[in-house]
Amino acid sequence: MNPIVPRFDVPSAILHGGGARRRLPDLLREFGSRRVLVVTDPGVAALGVVDEVLAILVSAGAEVAVFDQVQPDPTDVNVAAGVEALEAHQADLVVALGGGSPIDAAKVIAVRNANPGPLSEYMGLHKIANHGLPLIAIPTTAGTGSEASKVAVIMDTTRHVKMMMLSAPLLPRAAVVDVELTLSMPKSLTAAVGVDTLTHGIEAFVSRKANALSDPLALQCIGLCARNLKNAWSEPGNRAAREGMMLAATLGGMAFSNSSVCLVHGMSRPIGAVFHLPHGLSNAILLPAVTLFSCEAALDRYAVIARTTGCAEVTSGDRGACDALIDWLQQLNRDLELPRLSQCKGVDRKTLDDHIQKMAEDALASGSPANNPRVATAEEIVALYEAAW
Ligand SMILES: [Fe+2]
Protein backbone atom coordinates (compact mmCIF):
# COMPACT_ATOMS: atom_id res chain seq x y z
CA MET A 1 0.00 0.00 0.00
CA ASN A 2 1.24 3.48 -0.82
CA PRO A 3 1.81 5.10 2.58
CA ILE A 4 1.39 8.57 1.08
CA VAL A 5 -2.28 7.94 0.26
CA PRO A 6 -4.29 7.74 3.49
CA ARG A 7 -6.98 5.07 3.56
CA PHE A 8 -10.19 5.70 5.48
CA ASP A 9 -12.41 2.79 6.56
CA VAL A 10 -15.53 2.95 8.70
CA PRO A 11 -18.41 0.50 9.31
CA SER A 12 -20.98 0.55 6.53
CA ALA A 13 -23.71 1.23 9.11
CA ILE A 14 -23.69 2.73 12.60
CA LEU A 15 -27.03 2.56 14.42
CA HIS A 16 -26.76 4.88 17.41
CA GLY A 17 -29.00 6.12 20.17
CA GLY A 18 -31.05 4.66 23.00
CA GLY A 19 -32.73 1.40 21.98
CA ALA A 20 -30.58 0.91 18.85
CA ARG A 21 -30.15 -2.78 19.75
CA ARG A 22 -33.79 -3.38 18.85
CA ARG A 23 -32.92 -2.59 15.21
CA LEU A 24 -30.72 -5.70 14.95
CA PRO A 25 -33.34 -7.62 12.91
CA ASP A 26 -33.02 -4.98 10.15
CA LEU A 27 -29.29 -5.69 9.91
CA LEU A 28 -29.83 -9.45 9.84
CA ARG A 29 -32.25 -9.11 6.95
CA GLU A 30 -29.86 -6.76 5.15
CA PHE A 31 -26.96 -9.20 5.47
CA GLY A 32 -29.13 -12.23 4.64
CA SER A 33 -27.82 -14.01 7.73
CA ARG A 34 -29.54 -16.95 9.45
CA ARG A 35 -26.89 -18.53 11.65
CA VAL A 36 -25.33 -16.21 14.22
CA LEU A 37 -22.45 -16.72 16.63
CA VAL A 38 -22.59 -14.26 19.55
CA VAL A 39 -19.12 -13.62 21.02
CA THR A 40 -19.04 -12.21 24.54
CA ASP A 41 -17.39 -12.71 27.93
CA PRO A 42 -18.58 -14.27 31.20
CA GLY A 43 -19.05 -10.87 32.88
CA VAL A 44 -21.37 -9.55 30.17
CA ALA A 45 -23.17 -12.90 30.02
CA ALA A 46 -23.97 -12.56 33.74
CA LEU A 47 -25.57 -9.11 33.27
CA GLY A 48 -28.62 -10.33 31.36
CA VAL A 49 -27.87 -8.22 28.31
CA VAL A 50 -26.82 -11.31 26.35
CA ASP A 51 -30.20 -12.92 26.96
CA GLU A 52 -31.96 -9.82 25.69
CA VAL A 53 -29.86 -9.65 22.52
CA LEU A 54 -30.36 -13.40 21.95
CA ALA A 55 -34.12 -12.91 22.19
CA ILE A 56 -33.95 -10.10 19.61
CA LEU A 57 -31.91 -12.29 17.23
CA VAL A 58 -34.19 -15.30 17.67
CA SER A 59 -37.25 -13.11 17.07
CA ALA A 60 -35.69 -12.21 13.72
CA GLY A 61 -35.59 -15.91 12.79
CA ALA A 62 -31.88 -16.52 13.48
CA GLU A 63 -30.33 -19.74 14.81
CA VAL A 64 -28.01 -18.50 17.55
CA ALA A 65 -25.03 -19.98 19.39
CA VAL A 66 -23.03 -18.21 22.10
CA PHE A 67 -19.27 -18.24 22.71
CA ASP A 68 -18.79 -16.51 26.06
CA GLN A 69 -15.24 -17.48 27.00
CA VAL A 70 -13.30 -14.35 26.00
CA GLN A 71 -10.80 -13.22 28.68
CA PRO A 72 -10.20 -9.58 29.70
CA ASP A 73 -6.96 -9.50 27.63
CA PRO A 74 -8.15 -11.77 24.81
CA THR A 75 -5.65 -14.42 23.76
CA ASP A 76 -4.78 -16.51 20.73
CA VAL A 77 -6.28 -19.43 22.70
CA ASN A 78 -9.61 -17.57 23.01
CA VAL A 79 -9.57 -16.93 19.26
CA ALA A 80 -8.95 -20.62 18.47
CA ALA A 81 -11.81 -21.68 20.78
CA GLY A 82 -14.09 -19.10 19.19
CA VAL A 83 -13.28 -20.37 15.70
CA GLU A 84 -14.19 -23.89 16.85
CA ALA A 85 -17.55 -22.60 18.10
CA LEU A 86 -18.07 -20.75 14.83
CA GLU A 87 -17.37 -23.89 12.78
CA ALA A 88 -19.52 -26.10 15.02
CA HIS A 89 -22.47 -23.74 14.52
CA GLN A 90 -21.72 -23.17 10.80
CA ALA A 91 -22.26 -19.48 11.48
CA ASP A 92 -22.68 -17.00 8.63
CA LEU A 93 -22.54 -13.90 10.87
CA VAL A 94 -20.73 -12.92 14.08
CA VAL A 95 -22.22 -10.57 16.67
CA ALA A 96 -19.76 -9.17 19.22
CA LEU A 97 -21.27 -8.03 22.50
CA GLY A 98 -19.31 -6.40 25.32
CA GLY A 99 -16.27 -4.21 25.88
CA GLY A 100 -13.15 -4.05 23.76
CA SER A 101 -12.04 -7.59 24.63
CA PRO A 102 -14.94 -9.58 23.14
CA ILE A 103 -15.17 -7.20 20.18
CA ASP A 104 -11.44 -7.53 19.42
CA ALA A 105 -11.62 -11.32 19.77
CA ALA A 106 -14.73 -11.50 17.55
CA LYS A 107 -13.00 -9.48 14.83
CA VAL A 108 -10.21 -12.03 14.58
CA ILE A 109 -12.56 -15.02 14.96
CA ALA A 110 -14.63 -13.70 12.03
CA VAL A 111 -11.65 -13.43 9.65
CA ARG A 112 -9.63 -16.40 10.88
CA ASN A 113 -10.78 -19.06 8.41
CA ALA A 114 -10.12 -16.73 5.48
CA ASN A 115 -6.62 -16.02 6.86
CA PRO A 116 -5.41 -19.35 8.25
CA GLY A 117 -1.64 -18.81 8.79
CA PRO A 118 -0.01 -18.47 12.23
CA LEU A 119 -1.79 -15.66 14.10
CA SER A 120 1.51 -13.94 14.91
CA GLU A 121 2.01 -13.29 11.17
CA TYR A 122 -0.96 -10.93 11.21
CA MET A 123 0.54 -8.59 13.85
CA GLY A 124 1.13 -5.09 12.50
CA LEU A 125 -0.38 -3.01 9.72
CA HIS A 126 -2.41 -4.36 6.79
CA LYS A 127 -1.26 -7.97 7.20
CA ILE A 128 -4.76 -9.51 7.06
CA ALA A 129 -5.63 -9.66 3.38
CA ASN A 130 -8.96 -11.46 3.19
CA HIS A 131 -12.42 -10.52 4.41
CA GLY A 132 -14.17 -13.08 6.60
CA LEU A 133 -17.71 -13.33 7.92
CA PRO A 134 -19.64 -10.10 8.48
CA LEU A 135 -19.45 -8.78 12.04
CA ILE A 136 -21.92 -6.64 13.98
CA ALA A 137 -20.32 -5.04 17.06
CA ILE A 138 -22.45 -3.98 20.03
CA PRO A 139 -20.37 -2.20 22.70
CA THR A 140 -21.45 -2.28 26.34
CA THR A 141 -18.75 0.15 27.46
CA ALA A 142 -18.12 3.65 26.18
CA GLY A 143 -14.42 3.63 25.61
CA THR A 144 -12.52 1.36 23.31
CA GLY A 145 -14.18 2.44 20.07
CA SER A 146 -13.47 -1.09 18.86
CA GLU A 147 -16.94 -1.22 17.29
CA ALA A 148 -15.80 1.33 14.72
CA SER A 149 -12.13 0.45 14.28
CA LYS A 150 -10.12 -1.95 12.12
CA VAL A 151 -7.81 -2.72 15.05
CA ALA A 152 -7.70 -5.77 17.32
CA VAL A 153 -5.25 -6.51 20.14
CA ILE A 154 -4.72 -10.19 20.92
CA MET A 155 -2.31 -11.65 23.46
CA ASP A 156 0.26 -14.08 22.05
CA THR A 157 0.45 -16.57 24.93
CA THR A 158 3.69 -18.09 23.63
CA ARG A 159 5.73 -14.88 23.34
CA HIS A 160 3.72 -13.02 26.03
CA VAL A 161 3.21 -10.05 23.72
CA LYS A 162 0.03 -8.10 23.03
CA MET A 163 -0.24 -8.21 19.25
CA MET A 164 -1.73 -5.11 17.63
CA MET A 165 -3.35 -5.92 14.28
CA LEU A 166 -4.69 -3.20 11.99
CA SER A 167 -6.31 -4.35 8.77
CA ALA A 168 -9.44 -3.32 6.88
CA PRO A 169 -11.00 -6.85 7.02
CA LEU A 170 -11.15 -6.52 10.84
CA LEU A 171 -13.61 -3.64 10.60
CA PRO A 172 -17.13 -4.53 11.80
CA ARG A 173 -19.66 -4.37 8.98
CA ALA A 174 -22.05 -2.61 11.36
CA ALA A 175 -21.93 -1.08 14.84
CA VAL A 176 -24.93 -0.85 17.15
CA VAL A 177 -24.17 1.94 19.62
CA ASP A 178 -26.88 1.86 22.25
CA VAL A 179 -26.37 4.13 25.27
CA GLU A 180 -28.81 2.06 27.34
CA LEU A 181 -26.20 -0.73 27.51
CA THR A 182 -23.71 1.51 29.37
CA LEU A 183 -25.93 2.95 32.10
CA SER A 184 -24.91 0.32 34.66
CA MET A 185 -21.13 0.62 34.13
CA PRO A 186 -19.27 0.90 37.47
CA LYS A 187 -17.41 4.13 38.21
CA SER A 188 -13.89 2.70 37.92
CA LEU A 189 -14.68 1.28 34.47
CA THR A 190 -16.31 4.56 33.38
CA ALA A 191 -13.11 6.39 34.35
CA ALA A 192 -10.67 4.00 32.69
CA VAL A 193 -12.49 3.53 29.40
CA GLY A 194 -13.31 7.24 29.34
CA VAL A 195 -9.64 8.21 29.48
CA ASP A 196 -8.95 5.52 26.85
CA THR A 197 -11.45 7.33 24.62
CA LEU A 198 -9.80 10.68 25.31
CA THR A 199 -6.41 9.13 24.51
CA HIS A 200 -7.75 7.87 21.17
CA GLY A 201 -8.82 11.40 20.25
CA ILE A 202 -5.53 12.98 21.37
CA GLU A 203 -3.26 10.39 19.75
CA ALA A 204 -5.26 10.37 16.49
CA PHE A 205 -4.88 14.17 16.32
CA VAL A 206 -1.15 14.43 17.08
CA SER A 207 -0.16 11.30 15.13
CA ARG A 208 2.17 11.62 12.17
CA LYS A 209 -0.59 9.85 10.23
CA ALA A 210 -3.31 12.36 11.17
CA ASN A 211 -5.23 13.43 8.09
CA ALA A 212 -8.07 15.64 6.92
CA LEU A 213 -10.71 12.96 7.53
CA SER A 214 -9.49 11.80 10.95
CA ASP A 215 -8.89 15.30 12.41
CA PRO A 216 -12.53 16.42 12.79
CA LEU A 217 -13.49 13.06 14.33
CA ALA A 218 -10.58 13.28 16.78
CA LEU A 219 -11.45 16.81 17.88
CA GLN A 220 -15.13 15.97 18.24
CA CYS A 221 -14.13 12.99 20.40
CA ILE A 222 -11.89 15.16 22.60
CA GLY A 223 -14.56 17.84 23.05
CA LEU A 224 -17.22 15.29 24.00
CA CYS A 225 -14.87 13.72 26.57
CA ALA A 226 -14.08 17.11 28.09
CA ARG A 227 -17.79 17.96 28.42
CA ASN A 228 -19.09 14.58 29.55
CA LEU A 229 -16.52 12.29 31.18
CA LYS A 230 -16.58 13.75 34.69
CA ASN A 231 -20.39 13.89 34.70
CA ALA A 232 -20.71 10.31 33.42
CA TRP A 233 -18.36 9.24 36.23
CA SER A 234 -19.91 11.24 39.10
CA GLU A 235 -23.56 10.74 38.02
CA PRO A 236 -23.75 7.21 36.56
CA GLY A 237 -27.43 7.66 35.65
CA ASN A 238 -26.76 10.87 33.68
CA ARG A 239 -28.02 9.68 30.32
CA ALA A 240 -26.88 12.75 28.37
CA ALA A 241 -23.33 12.37 29.71
CA ARG A 242 -23.35 8.64 28.95
CA GLU A 243 -24.58 9.34 25.43
CA GLY A 244 -21.81 11.91 24.97
CA MET A 245 -19.16 9.41 26.03
CA MET A 246 -20.62 6.69 23.84
CA LEU A 247 -20.48 8.93 20.78
CA ALA A 248 -16.98 10.03 21.75
CA ALA A 249 -15.89 6.39 21.87
CA THR A 250 -17.22 5.61 18.40
CA LEU A 251 -15.79 8.82 16.91
CA GLY A 252 -12.46 8.14 18.60
CA GLY A 253 -12.42 4.60 17.21
CA MET A 254 -12.97 5.87 13.69
CA ALA A 255 -10.32 8.57 14.19
CA PHE A 256 -7.47 6.46 15.53
CA SER A 257 -8.06 3.51 13.25
CA ASN A 258 -7.65 5.81 10.24
CA SER A 259 -4.82 7.87 11.74
CA SER A 260 -3.10 5.82 14.43
CA VAL A 261 -2.43 5.65 18.10
CA CYS A 262 1.04 6.67 19.25
CA LEU A 263 3.38 6.45 22.23
CA VAL A 264 0.74 6.15 25.00
CA HIS A 265 -0.80 3.05 23.45
CA GLY A 266 2.60 1.65 22.47
CA MET A 267 3.76 1.88 26.11
CA SER A 268 0.41 0.84 27.54
CA ARG A 269 0.26 -2.63 25.95
CA PRO A 270 3.44 -3.90 27.72
CA ILE A 271 2.01 -2.68 31.07
CA GLY A 272 -1.07 -4.76 30.29
CA ALA A 273 1.03 -7.77 29.30
CA VAL A 274 3.10 -7.71 32.52
CA PHE A 275 0.65 -6.45 35.15
CA HIS A 276 -2.75 -7.19 33.54
CA LEU A 277 -4.03 -3.70 34.28
CA PRO A 278 -7.12 -2.69 32.31
CA HIS A 279 -6.15 -1.05 29.02
CA GLY A 280 -7.78 2.28 29.81
CA LEU A 281 -6.15 2.47 33.23
CA SER A 282 -2.64 1.93 31.85
CA ASN A 283 -3.31 4.63 29.24
CA ALA A 284 -4.52 7.05 31.91
CA ILE A 285 -1.39 6.40 33.97
CA LEU A 286 0.83 7.28 31.01
CA LEU A 287 -1.10 10.09 29.32
CA PRO A 288 0.12 13.13 31.33
CA ALA A 289 3.82 12.12 31.26
CA VAL A 290 3.77 11.21 27.57
CA THR A 291 1.98 14.46 26.71
CA LEU A 292 4.64 16.45 28.57
CA PHE A 293 7.37 14.52 26.69
CA SER A 294 5.72 14.89 23.28
CA CYS A 295 4.25 18.37 23.17
CA GLU A 296 7.50 20.16 22.24
CA ALA A 297 7.38 18.43 18.87
CA ALA A 298 3.82 19.50 18.04
CA LEU A 299 3.01 22.54 20.19
CA ASP A 300 0.42 23.79 17.73
CA ARG A 301 -1.51 20.50 17.60
CA TYR A 302 -1.50 20.02 21.39
CA ALA A 303 -2.58 23.65 21.78
CA VAL A 304 -5.62 22.98 19.57
CA ILE A 305 -6.44 20.03 21.83
CA ALA A 306 -6.11 22.24 24.92
CA ARG A 307 -8.48 24.83 23.45
CA THR A 308 -10.92 22.08 22.42
CA THR A 309 -11.09 20.77 25.98
CA GLY A 310 -11.72 24.28 27.27
CA CYS A 311 -8.73 24.19 29.64
CA ALA A 312 -7.11 26.98 27.58
CA GLU A 313 -8.69 30.13 26.18
CA VAL A 314 -9.37 30.22 22.45
CA THR A 315 -7.00 33.21 22.26
CA SER A 316 -4.21 31.59 24.30
CA GLY A 317 -0.68 31.14 22.94
CA ASP A 318 0.49 27.62 22.06
CA ARG A 319 2.99 27.31 24.91
CA GLY A 320 0.56 28.40 27.61
CA ALA A 321 -2.17 26.18 26.15
CA CYS A 322 0.10 23.12 26.28
CA ASP A 323 1.05 23.83 29.89
CA ALA A 324 -2.65 24.10 30.74
CA LEU A 325 -3.35 20.80 28.96
CA ILE A 326 -0.78 18.90 31.02
CA ASP A 327 -2.20 20.34 34.27
CA TRP A 328 -5.73 19.46 33.09
CA LEU A 329 -4.79 15.85 32.30
CA GLN A 330 -3.14 15.41 35.70
CA GLN A 331 -6.16 16.91 37.45
CA LEU A 332 -8.54 14.73 35.41
CA ASN A 333 -6.82 11.58 36.70
CA ARG A 334 -7.10 12.88 40.26
CA ASP A 335 -10.76 13.84 39.80
CA LEU A 336 -11.57 10.38 38.44
CA GLU A 337 -9.60 8.75 41.30
CA LEU A 338 -7.26 7.04 38.84
CA PRO A 339 -4.05 5.87 40.55
CA ARG A 340 -0.41 6.25 39.59
CA LEU A 341 1.35 3.07 38.43
CA SER A 342 2.89 2.48 41.87
CA GLN A 343 -0.58 2.65 43.47
CA CYS A 344 -2.19 -0.01 41.27
CA LYS A 345 -3.22 -3.35 42.74
CA GLY A 346 -0.88 -6.14 41.65
CA VAL A 347 1.95 -3.82 40.62
CA ASP A 348 5.26 -4.11 42.45
CA ARG A 349 8.59 -2.41 41.99
CA LYS A 350 10.68 -5.56 41.52
CA THR A 351 8.51 -6.88 38.68
CA LEU A 352 8.74 -3.50 36.98
CA ASP A 353 12.54 -3.43 37.36
CA ASP A 354 12.78 -6.98 36.00
CA HIS A 355 10.67 -6.20 32.94
CA ILE A 356 11.17 -2.51 32.20
CA GLN A 357 13.79 -2.99 29.48
CA LYS A 358 11.72 -5.59 27.62
CA MET A 359 8.61 -3.43 28.07
CA ALA A 360 10.42 -0.57 26.32
CA GLU A 361 11.58 -2.87 23.52
CA ASP A 362 8.08 -4.37 23.09
CA ALA A 363 6.60 -0.87 23.00
CA LEU A 364 8.96 0.11 20.17
CA ALA A 365 8.39 -3.18 18.33
CA SER A 366 4.61 -2.56 18.24
CA GLY A 367 5.19 0.30 15.78
CA SER A 368 2.81 2.73 17.49
CA PRO A 369 5.56 4.90 19.06
CA ALA A 370 6.92 5.67 15.57
CA ASN A 371 3.72 7.65 14.90
CA ASN A 372 4.32 9.92 17.90
CA PRO A 373 5.20 13.55 17.12
CA ARG A 374 8.39 13.08 19.19
CA VAL A 375 9.88 9.63 18.59
CA ALA A 376 11.27 8.15 21.80
CA THR A 377 14.33 5.94 22.24
CA ALA A 378 14.20 2.84 24.45
CA GLU A 379 15.99 4.82 27.18
CA GLU A 380 13.42 7.61 26.96
CA ILE A 381 10.58 5.07 27.19
CA VAL A 382 12.18 3.60 30.34
CA ALA A 383 12.32 7.13 31.77
CA LEU A 384 8.64 7.67 30.92
CA TYR A 385 7.66 4.45 32.72
CA GLU A 386 9.61 5.82 35.69
CA ALA A 387 7.81 9.15 35.42
CA ALA A 388 4.45 7.32 35.56
CA TRP A 389 5.53 5.24 38.58
FE1 LIG B 1 -7.16 2.32 23.48
Describe this structure in words.
- By secondary structure, the protein is of the alpha/beta class.
- Helix content is 51%, strand content 11%.
- It contains 14 helices and nine strands.
- The protein has a six-stranded parallel sheet, with helices on both faces. A three-stranded mixed sheet has the order 5-8-7.
- A hairpin with a 4-residue loop joins β7 (151-156) and β8 (161-166).
- α13 (349-365) crosses α14 (378-388).
Summarize the structure.
This protein has 14 helices and nine strands. It is an alpha/beta fold and 389 residues long.
Features:
globular; 51% helix; binds fe (ii) ion; three-stranded mixed beta sheet; 11% strand; alpha/beta; six-stranded parallel beta sheet
The major pleated sheet works out as: 6 strands, parallel
Shape: globular
Number of helices: 14
Q: Catalogue the ligands.
A: fe (ii) ion
Low-confidence sequence ranges:
none
